[in-house]
Amino acid sequence: MRLTRPNVTRLVLPPGKSETIVFDDALPGFGVRVRAGGKRTWIAQYRLGTKQRRITLGSVEAVDPDEARTRAKRALADVQLGNDPQAEKSQARARAAITLGSIAVRYLDHAKTRLRPRSYEEVERHLTRHWAPLREMPIHDVGRRNIAGRLDDIAKQHGPFASNRARASLSAMFTWAMRQGEAEANPVIATGKATDEISRDRVLSDLEITAIWQACRDDDYGRIVRLLILTGQRREEVGAMCWSEIDRTKGMWRLPMSRTKNGLPHDVPLSAQALDIIEATPVRPGRNLIFGQGEGGFQGWSNSKTAMDKRISEFLKSQITANKSALSPWRLHDLRRTMVTQMNESLGILPHVVEAVVNHITGPSKMGVAGVYNRAGYAAEKRISLERWAEYVFARINSPK
C-alpha cells in the first residue's frame, strides 16, 4: 500500500506478533513499524553489503507522511553514495553524549595527579562552577561564540582576572581532550582575554600603598588586605587564618605545614599594628576561621577587589600629588613583592632574613636539620624586620600629602 496517514492509522498487528513493518509500494525501503501498544515509527531499510540496516525517521505522530518520505529518500540516496546513515546516526549520538561536563570530569582526574593541590582546586572551581552553563553541551558543539559569551559573563560577575584564569583552565582541558581524541580543535585559542595580564615584577609605590590602605574598609576584605601589606604573606594564608594559629601572648602567627606552599611550618611575628587588626576582628561563635563565612576561609576576592579599585581611584583623584586618577593594574601578590623589595632596598634588611620572613627556604644552608636551626635563629630578626616594615608603612600613610 501507499503509506498515508489514514492507511497507517488503520494498521493493526497480526495475531501473536509484537511488531510488524509495512513497506510503501511507491518507494522501496520506506516503511512504518507498528509495535504492540500502538507506537508507530517511520523507518528506512537498506542493504549494506550482506547486511540489512534500518534507520528510524521519526514517529508517525510527530512526522507527517510527506516529510517522512522525503527523509527516507535522502537516507536511501546517501546509501547509493556509499554511506551508512544508521552508522552516522549512531556516531552522532555518541558524539552528542561526550559533553563538556563529562570531559571536565575526566580531565580533572588527570589533572589531580599532576597539579599542586591549590592549583587543582582553582582549576576544579573554574571547570565546575564558572563553566557550569556549558557543561551539558556536546564538546564538539562548543564554539568560540559560546566561550566568548561566557567569558564576558564571568568577567562581569567575578572580575577580569577570574575570567582569564577560567579561560586558561578551559584551554588546558581542550588541549588535553585533543590529545585524547575527544575534541578536534581548541576553540578557546581564538577568544580574547578580559584584560591584559599584569607583570609579575610589579612593585607598588608609596602613594599606591597609601591609596590601597586608605581604600580598605572595616570588613573582612579590608582587614585581609591590610594584613597582607603588613605581613607580606600569601593571600590564601591570610584569608584562611585561624584563631588557633594566633599566639596573642607572644604576638605570633603560627602557620602549620598543611597551610604553607612549601609544606614547612612558618612563624610570622606580628607587629603591634598587625595584631591590632586581628584583635579588632569580630569573633564568630563556633568558628575557628577569622575571616569569611561557611566552611572555608574568605572567598569573595574578585568582587571585593573590583569595589576596592573604585575607591582607590576616588582617593587618588583627591591627592594633589597624584598625576593619574586610577591605580595601574595590580594584584594582591604585588603587596608581598613590594614588601620584599622595600625591605631589601629601603630598610637594608639582609636577603636571607627577608626570605625567612616570607617563608622562602632556598639553598643548602636552609635545608634539612640546618634549616630548622636557621629558622629558629632568625626569629628575632624576623620580628625586628616586620616591626620596621610596619613603621615604614605607617610613616607613609600618615605623612602629609
Describe this structure in words.
- The model is unreliable at about 365-375 (pLDDT under 50).
- The longest helix has 20 residues, at about 160-180.
- With about 400 residues, this protein is α+β, with helices and mostly antiparallel strands.
- The strands form two sheets. The chain has a four-stranded antiparallel sheet. A three-stranded antiparallel sheet has the order 5-6-7.
- Helix 8 crosses helix 12 (about 300-315).
- Helices cover about 50% and strands about 10% of the residues.
- The protein is built from 16 helices and seven strands.
Quick structural gist:
The protein is an alpha+beta fold and 401 residues long.
Gyration radius (Cα, Å) is 33 Å
Structural class: alpha+beta
Tally the helices: 16
Number of strands: 7
Q: Return residue spans where pLDDT drops below 50 for at least 5 consecutive residues.
A: 363-375
Helix content: 40-55%
State the major sheet.
4 strands, antiparallel
Overall mean pLDDT: 87
- Tell me the distance between the termini: 97 Å
Q: What share of the residues does DSSP label as strand, in percent?
A: 5-15%
Write the H/E string, N to C.
HEEEEHHHHHHHHHEEEHHHHHH
Please list the strands of the largest sheet in the order they lie side by side.
1-2-3-4
Shape: elongated
